[in-house]
Amino acid sequence: MAQATKKSRRWHIAVFLAPAVLIYTAIMIIPLFSTLQLAMYSDVENSQVFVGLQNFRALFGDPQWSDQFWNALKNNTWFFIVHMIVQNPIGILLAALLSSPRLRMRSFYRTAIFIPTILSFVIAGFAWKLILSPLWGVAPNLLDFVGLKSLFQPWLGKEAYALTTLALISVWQFVGIPMMLIYAALLSIPDELLEAAECDGITGMSQFWKVKLPLILPAIGIISILTFVGNFNAFDLIYATQGALAGPDFSTDILGTFMFRTFFGFQLQLGDPNLGAAIATAMFAIILIGVSIYLFGIQTRLRRYQF
Amino acid sequence: MMKSTKLALLAATMLGTTGTAMAQDAELTIESWRNDDLTIWQEKLIPAFEAKHPGIKVTFAPSAPTEYNAVLNSKLDAGTAGDLVTCRPFDASLSLYEKGHLTDLKDLENMSNFSDVAKAAWSTDDGSATFCVPMASVIHGFIYNADAFEELGIEAPKTNEEFYAVLEKIKEDGTYIPMAMGAKDQWEAATMGYTNIGPNYWKGEEGRLALIAGEQKLTDEQWVTPLAEIAKWAPYLGDGYEAQAYPDSQNLFTLGRAAIFPAGSWEIAIFNEQADFKLGAFPPPVQNAGDECYISDHTDIGIGMNAKTANTEAARTFLNWVGSAEFASLYANSLPGFFSLSNETVEMEDPLAKEFVSWRENCKSTIRPAHQILSRGTPNLWNEMWNVSANVLRGAQSPEDGAKQLQDGLAGWYEPQQ
Lengths: 307, 418
Fold this sequence. Notes:
Chain B: Its main location: periplasm. Chain B: It is found in: Periplasm. Chain B: Belongs to the bacterial solute-binding protein 1 family. Chain B: This is Probable sugar-binding periplasmic protein. Chain B: Part of a binding-protein-dependent transport system for a sugar. The structure holds 2 protein chains of 2 kinds. Helix content of chain A is about 70%, strand content about 5%. By secondary structure, chain A is mainly alpha-helical. In chain A, the strands form 2 sheets. In chain A, strands 1-2 form a two-stranded antiparallel ribbon. A two-stranded antiparallel sheet of chain A has the order 3-4. In chain A, α3 packs across α7 (about 160-175) and α12 (about 255-265) packs antiparallel against α13 (about 275-300). The longest helix of chain A is centred in the first third of the chain and has 37 residues, at about 1-40. Chain B is α/β, with parallel strands linked by helices. Chain B has helices at about 1-25, 40-50, 70-80, 90-100, 115-120, 145-150, 160-175, 185-195, 200, 205-215, 220-235, 245-255, 265-275, 310-320, 325-335, 350-360, 380-395, 400-410; strands at about 25-30, 55-60, 85, 130-145, 175-180, 260-265, 280, 295-305, 340, 365. In chain B, α8 (about 185-195) packs across α17, α11 packs across α17 and α11 (about 220-235) packs across α18 (about 400-410). The longest helix of chain B has 22 residues, at about 1-25. The radius of gyration of chain B is 24 Å and the shape is globular. The relative contact order of chain B is 0.16. The chains are: A mainly alpha, B alpha/beta. At the A-B interface, β3 and β4 of A face α3, α4, α12 and α17 of B.
């Protein structure tokens, strides 16, 4: 009898997992492998021919492609760095302020800051394009109002500023997510711990640095990895504001737009799905390496506190 | 009782629908990037065709211009594209024909209404097959605010010197921004800048064909000078033109804030509607008075048949109609600025469109240099021209460096240039 129960329990697991496994396999795993496969082929006189790693060799070795690839990767990295040094500290700061017991209208602030994250990239991009427009935008007028008109620049049109501007727009849009996650982590810290800290004379800022921050480090780790994956997959914002040529002079070109331009083609340039798939595979590898470093190098070392 | 009534109703509906479906024996869908033209197709062109061919129903289903090629290619590969496909000129369409997505239309009766030059944009290199019916070309030049010119007492410039004198005068006066052009949407700088004024320097077809033959290089003087000219435009553009997009330029001009708009004739319809001042146009200025002038008269749009369509006969009927004199006059007058490529004389009513087309009499026509053959490889010469022209306009790259980048890119894959 006992054996039968055990068996049927295992059988149940399979049945309940099956739908998810099947759907996930069909729409995630199989396409992933067919992308890998597509990257190994090349179009020779209108028929697909297996060429092994030649597309990757072109991508990393042929200056025509590798210049664009490294440029995109460099821009992508900068995009990520801006998020890490701006979005996450601001997210933590906002969460710390929100969790302060003396703050009024807390839910209003929380909602107001979170709302942009539910906007579409296209809307956010378009709105900011209008705000920053040197011709019709409110930014020049507002700066003029406080006497700082001379600081105004056509930010989206200058190579030196365009990428940082876009990264900051993205930060504005998504700062609500780290804020919410860290806010939740802060709320889950038991009061006894904080009271104990107070008994030891640790209050205010030092309480935050010495007690709260170590406790929310795992949450910050999760947020960093989510930011990493999101940034290296980014595409929409750049495409919506700068187009597929990611101007000015490719200064805002990231892996996503580079892949789109190569895969689907742009204007007179014809699409090359094989090389596009090679870029997609490279993106996948970069993200995989990043996530692995995090999982094995950082997360295992993060101390978890059991309450 | 109820049940049988319901059944009878159901049967009647089903029979009814099959009945109508039988009467409508063919439905055609047109793929296009001209989403601006949706109403014209729906209100003028399609009704005119359907009135003559009651058995065929046509739907115009455009997508966004910059996404068109990507969308069309994926749809054709997946077998879900419409029956009729509007064709970009030269290589983009040629590759579709070579992949077997488009059908040879050489035997279409009304194909004889077009000259070889008109058909060249949609024929194989050896001319053995023509796979799209030519629809229209667009001419480049400058559109200006005639009221503003009158107010300031200036006339449309003919030479380069006069051109800058005019710009300087408008700038001094300060009421208007001399010229509406931005560098953000890079194609604006290349299309309405470089290939607009360029033909006067590289002598139109002569330079273009020499480039294809490998006899001239993009670093030669006649190809660098127009870039240098664009760089000289910067002081006459609006504040923050680096981030000014193409629609911004259009608005600046139609709102009467800028006096001159480097244009393509496709602007005519929109400007007529939006601007409440008098419009004028002048061709790209020449270096010395009396010099031979060249205009960019670019074969821009054609229409072909999806090889996998189920309605071959209906599609051919439609395409034949597109080749007719009736369509030519209907199209040219519904869309002033899109000039018919047909050999039939088309009477145009719009004065601005007439002005543009009149340049054909005195100036030599040419097409944009990057379109035929030179954009087959990677990097794509036309996309590079977008980037370089915008860089030069922004002052981020010197004309010489820009030209060198274009030449190096082209020589990277194009044998005659190596």
